[in-house]
Amino acid sequence: MPAGLVKAAAVVVAVAQTAPADGAAADAPWPSGSAIAVPSGQDITFMDVIYDVQSGVGEAFRYRFLAPGIARDAGSIAFVQAEEDMAALCQDFILPKLIETGAEMPAQIIVVLSDRPVEFGIADPDATQFFEAYRPEDDSCIWEGF
């Protein structure tokens, strides 16, 4: 497993993404709803992955996770903790699974944390979401700020 976490800065977005769904949602190498350990200790579960999303750098895979602890009114996870969690999700979970399965690497991996399930492409002004983008390179997730 690659060593270390890539330090990241993230953009807090309090509304759902509004881009149209370019790719279909599909299961990743772990089942939807499975819990994943992250540095903050918050409860995070995998929701889905959306393939073939076109970004400014080419094809992106968007991995979406449920993270109720980031809720703006009732959450206990600070932004700085969530950004470490997103870097860990890319480096320690997503990238190793892509390498293990021999999948072709996308140009970009986008990690999304949401305090509630949000349908892709549908705005939800009550939702709190954090988004972060990484470039897979040499077995590492390199942060690419939006």
Could you characterize the architecture of this molecule?
- The model is unreliable at 1-28 (pLDDT under 50).
- With 146 residues, the chain is α+β, with helices and mostly antiparallel strands.
- It has one helix and eight strands, in the order E-E-E-E-E-H-E-E-E.
- Strands 1, 2, 3, 4, 5, 6, 7 and 8 form an eight-stranded mixed β-sheet that branches.
- Strand 7 and strand 8 form a beta hairpin.
- The two termini are 27 Å apart.
Total E-strand runs: 8
Structural class: alpha+beta
Give the end-to-end Cα distance, rounded to a whole number of Å: 27 Å
Question: Helix and strand string, N-terminal first?
Answer: EEEEEHEEE
**Backbone shape:** globular
Kindly state the percentage of residues in helix: 10-25%
Separate helix tally: 1
Rg, rounded, reads: 14 Å
Beta-strand portion reads: 25-35%
Short overview:
16% of the residues lie in helices and 33% in strands.
Give descriptors for this structure:
alpha+beta, 146 residues, globular, 16% helix, eight-stranded mixed β-sheet
List the helices and strands and how they pair.
Layout: E1 11-13, E2 25-26, E3 35-36, E4 44-55, E5 58-66, H1 79-101, E6 108-114, E7 129-137, E8 140-143
Parallel strand pairs: 5-6
Antiparallel strand pairs: 1-7, 2-4, 3-4, 4-5, 6-7, 7-8
